[in-house]
Amino acid sequence: MKRREFARIAGLTALGLPLAARTAPRVRETRRPNLLFIMADDHASQAIGCYGSRVNRTPHIDRIAREGARFDRCYCTNGICAPSRAVILTGKHSHLNGVRDNAAVFDGGQPTFPKLIKAAGYETALLGKWHLKSDPTGFDHWAVLPDQGEYYNPDLVEDGVRRRRAGYVTDLLTDMAVDFLGSRGPGAPPFLLMLHHKAPHRNWQPAERHLGLYDDADFPEPPTLRDGYATRSRAAVEQEMTIRDHMTLDSDLKLGPPPGRLDEGQRAAWERAYGPKREAFRKAGLEGDDLLRWKYRRYLQDYLGCVAAVDEGVGRVLDALDATGLAEDTLVLYTSDQGFFLGEHGWFDKRFMYEEALRMPFVARFPGRIAPGTVNGDIVSNLDFAPTFLDVAGLGKPAEMQGRSFRPLLLGRRVAGWPESFYYHYHEFPAVHMAKRHYGVRTKRHKLIHFYHDIDAWELYDLERDPLELRNVHGDPAYAAVRRELESELERLRAFYRDREPAGTK
Length: 506
Prior knowledge:
alpha/beta, Alkaline Phosphatase, subunit A, Arylsulfatase, C-terminal domain, ten-stranded mixed sheet, four-stranded antiparallel sheet, 15 helices, 16 strands, disordered N terminus
C-alpha cells in the first residue's frame, strides 16, 4: 500500500467510520478532518440556550448542539484561566504541566497537541486569548492578546509583533477566523484553528450594538443568590467574590468613567448607554437587598451582552464553513475554560468545585459522523481534550498525557470501563477572590471536597437530593459509607494522577 493511501485510510479509521465510508469515492472523505476549536472565557453553561438558560438565547452555539452533540458532564480540573488552558494543551494535570495558578509561566517545550498535529502535516493557527506568559509554540500562525487583553481596540501580538487593532475584540477575532477559513484553497493541508475569545471575562464590556440589549430584561434570580452558607465550611464564608460585597461599582458595574481604550465614537455610544443609568443609580440611593438586586441585574446585562457577540461570532464562523465548502470536513467544538457563577451562592467568578464553576459547556458538530441531537452524560474533562484532538487527527497520544480520548463518545458509542469519577485540584491561594485551596472527587451522584492550607475542612454533597449544594452531609451518619467510599476513591485518583502536593494544613 502506498504511503498516501495508508495515511488516508488511517485518518478515516481514526474517526470510527465504517469500512464502506472509508473507501467511498467522495472527495470530502479523502482528507483528514479539519479541527475548529472555539473557546470562550468564563462562559457559564447556564448562559447557553441548549443547556437550559433562563436568562438569554444563544442560537448559534445551540446550532452546534442541535446538529451534533452536547456533553452534560464536562468538567474542569483546575477552575481558573491559565491552568485550564495548560491542561487543555498538554493533557496533564496542573501539578505536572507546571501551571498551578495564573502567575505561572507555561513551559512551551513540553509536548502539546498543537505541536503533534502540526508535525503530522496540519496547518495550525491560534487566535485570541493565550494567557500563559510565554509565546505560543506549535502554531504556524498566532495572534494573541497580551495578558487578559482589552475589549475595545485591543493590542494583538501577531507572530511576535505587537500591533493595535481598531474595533471590538470578539468581532476582530471572528474576522480573522473567517479570513483564515476563506484562505483555504484547493490542495491546502488540513487545519487546526483555535479561536479563543476573551469574552465574557470580567469586567464585561459589551460591543456598541449590545450596550442596551438587556435593558428591559427581567432576569430570574438564582434561588441561592442570598445563600448564608449554613452547613458549609469557612471556605464558603471567607471568599471574596460576592456580588453584594466584592463587585466594584466603578469598573464592574460601570458607574465610573468609560474605559480608556475607547475612541470618540465608542465613547459617545458608551455615554449614551451608561450615562443615564449612572444618574438614575445616584438618585435612587439603593441599600440592602434593593442594592443587591440592582447589582445582580447590571452584572447579567453586561455579561450577557458580551456573550451575545460571542454567539454571533460562532454563527459567522459556521456560515463561513458552509460558504467555503469546509463544513463536512470540519469537527467544530465549542467550550469555555471553566464554568462561572452568575449569582449562584451570591457569587461571580469561578475557582470553587461547586457545579456552576466546575462544569464546562461542551458541544461538538461533525456532519455525517456525529449524529444530530446527541446528548452524552459520561464524565469527561479538559484533561481529555488533547488526547481527543490527537485521536480525531489519527494520532496517538504521548505516554505522559493523563487524559483519554472521548472520540468514541462523540460518535455515540458506549465505552466499557469509562471512568465514573473525576479529580479536581485548585491551587491558587492566597490570591484574588481568596478561594481556599482544595481538591476533590465527583461521581455522577456525589461530590467530596477537601479544603486545605490554612484550613482543614471537608464537604460532601448528594447531588441527586441536593443539586444546589446547600447541605454538607460530611458529618451525617447516614452518609458514613458513602464518605468512606469517596475518600478511598479520592486517594486512588491522587495516586493515579501522581498528585503528591501537601494537602494538610499550613
